[in-house]
Amino acid sequence: MTTRRDFVKKGMAGVLASSILPLSYDKTDLLKEKKEDAFKLGIAGYSFLHFKLDESLAMMQKVDVHYLCIKDFHLPYKSTADEISAFHARLKESGVTGYAVGPIYTKTQQDIDNAFDYAKRVGVKLLIGIPNHEDLPYLEKKVKEYDIRFGIHNHGPEDKLYPNAASVYSKIKDMDPRIGLCFDMGHNKRDNQDPVADLGKYSKRIFDMHLKNVSAATKDGKTCELGRGVIDIPAFVKMLRKSGYNGVCSLEYEKDMKDPLAGIAESVGYFRGVCDATK
Amino acid sequence: MTTRRDFVKKGMAGVLASSILPLSYDKTDLLKEKKEDAFKLGIAGYSFLHFKLDESLAMMQKVDVHYLCIKDFHLPYKSTADEISAFHARLKESGVTGYAVGPIYTKTQQDIDNAFDYAKRVGVKLLIGIPNHEDLPYLEKKVKEYDIRFGIHNHGPEDKLYPNAASVYSKIKDMDPRIGLCFDMGHNKRDNQDPVADLGKYSKRIFDMHLKNVSAATKDGKTCELGRGVIDIPAFVKMLRKSGYNGVCSLEYEKDMKDPLAGIAESVGYFRGVCDATK
After folding, report:
1. String of b and e for A174-194 (b: at least 16 CB within 10 Å)?
2. Residue ranges of B 23-42 with Cβ closer than 8 A to chain A
3. Regarding beta strands A223-224 and A213-214, do their DSSP bridges make them parallel or antiparallel, or are they unpaired?
4. Do B230 and A25 touch (CB under 8 A)?
């Protein structure tokens, strides 16, 4: 079978070259293919806090998602080169790419050294983390030295360092452009900020994103299924396109963390429904 | 917490009367509330073929869906009045309404009698079934006698009686308007018909709907997650609105039937994403 999604995955040329168009294939599919989005859907490793790698990959296959931000509980910081190779091979078997590592909390310059060393050994060009303010100049040296981009994660009203996107941006706007944001739209909303407007404002420095919705725009807001919260996801998707975001929207699902598959699946479906309906 | 979906469920007046608007509540929510869709999302009982009622209701609660088309494996035809009352009470505890019964295959006029008797005892005003062609005049007498609407289900290219929507409509178009269709959009597509166009054509006689997508527009097409098939769901939702359909879109999920929750959740999310994004 060749479905509309296959066309998106394989690319039009590949499909046209390799198969005969099925009867069900409408002209409109070709038009849609031309509008394939620059951004990709992924899953933030933290969503799988209570699951081993194989269980996590099985869930990703179930929902047909192919990008994972790697957390250390799946690939420990002290992994050997062989362990890292085996990890990537396992992901590849599942059709998954580990595109970044983190979030990693760094309390010292040594922690930052270790994080960059880890990212380099893992072979990714994007590191998500939470550096202390006084370490930002040191961080700037490291992104230059390694040519690895660093996305700083915002964590809502309780976060003394980076409660929201604006607080990250104000610190890094004059620094090396390889320092940017891992924009957590849910924590941003919990800090009573506007995730749609902030995506538009800071998109050039947003390298990664924790895709989620929350139940309230206050510190008591909790992660919920993507279509059930207070953030207007259709408006957010439109802004993803308008701003030209071309990174991963990594679903971070923090509800029912010991039994998250249904909520992940509903959220993935909702995101794709919004994307398909607004193309 | 008061989310956007609460406003939809409770109705604006109820929410305004009963709670203070949260900080997160945007003016746009009020506009959206005005555009609440006439159609409702439900689940066709057949999706839960391998599950007891309680397990099925738990899945419905998980995905926040509140309308169920009742199948006999959850409420046997020979149920007593007390058993029927207990059934409805159990649904009510889960916030679910059993809005119709079926599909019921009827091979004889006695089968039709039994089906109407069952629908009346269950207390629903809509019966989904598959009558023989020669029984249609008898069926017409029964809908008049009971004032219960009857939706005929189409079942794709293998179905000698009703392969597609047009084949149902041609038989019933001059009959009592209480005879109509349970439009199975997936089987319609498997018969290489156009579900979007057919929804538009026959909407006035469509009383119920099996919401689904399929992997191909041929007899080999299989039910798949709602966003992964060959039917253009955004176009379908737009036609639901254009045609003024005000019944239930009852998800019939026939993939992974022994472990359907993730696929149901993804499909529910996809449908809601499309609906929210096209309002």
Report:
1. ebeebbbbbbbbbbbbbbbbb
2. 23-26, 28
3. antiparallel
4. yes
Asked whether the beta carbons of residue A28 and residue B215 sit closer than 8 angstroms, the reply is: no
Domain coordinates of chain A in residue numbers? Answer: 1-33, 34-277
The mean pLDDT value for B140-153 works out to: 98
Options 3.20.20.150, 3.30.70.1450, 3.40.50.1000, 1.10.3720.10; CATH of A34-277: 3.20.20.150
Q: Model pTM?
A: 0.90
Asked if the Cβ–Cβ distance from A233 to B273 is below 8 Å, we say: yes
Q: What is the pLDDT of residue A35?
A: 74
Q: Do the chains contact at A230 and B270, CB–CB below 8 Å? A: no
- Residue among B192, B229, B278 minimizing CB distance to A3: B229
Looking at the complex, does the CB of residue A64 fall below 8 Å from at least one CB of chain B?
Answer: yes
ipTM: 0.89
d(CA B213, CA A267): 18
pLDDT at residue B248, rounded to an integer: 98
CA proximity to A91, closest of A70, A116, A119, A117: A70
A277·B237 Cβ contact <8 A: yes
Q: Which residues contact B275 (CB under 8 A, 6 or more apart)?
A: A273, B37, B237
DSSP string spanning B117-155?
A: HHHHHHT-SEEEEEE-GGGHHHHHHHHHHH--EEEEEP-
Alpha-carbon torsion angle B127, B132, B137, B140, nearest 10: 0
Query: Residue B191 is encoded by which pair of tokens?
Result: 């018969």
- Average pLDDT estimate for A52-72: 98
Does B8 contact chain A (CB < 8 Å)? no
Please tell me which residue of chain A has the smallest CA distance to B234: A277
**Best residue in A240, A249, A272 for a mutation probing chain B (most B CBs within 10 Å):** A272
pLDDT tens digits, B200-255: 999 999 999 999 999 999 999 999 999 999 999 999 999 999 999 999 999 999 99
B232 Cβ under 8 Å from any chain A Cβ: yes
Q: Is A272 on the interface with B (CB under 8 A)?
A: yes
Whether A163 contacts A155, CB under 8 Å? yes
Mapping DSSP to helix (H, G, I), strand (E, B) and coil, where does residue A235 land? helix
B122 touches chain A (CB under 8 A): no
Q: Mean pLDDT lowest for which of A30-44, A117-131, B47-61, B209-223?
A: A30-44
- The answer to whether B209 and B249 have CB atoms below 8 angstroms apart is yes
Measure the CA–CA gap between B197 and B215, rounded to whole angstroms. 19
| Set of chain B residues whose Cβ sits within 8 Å of the Cβ of A278 | 277-278
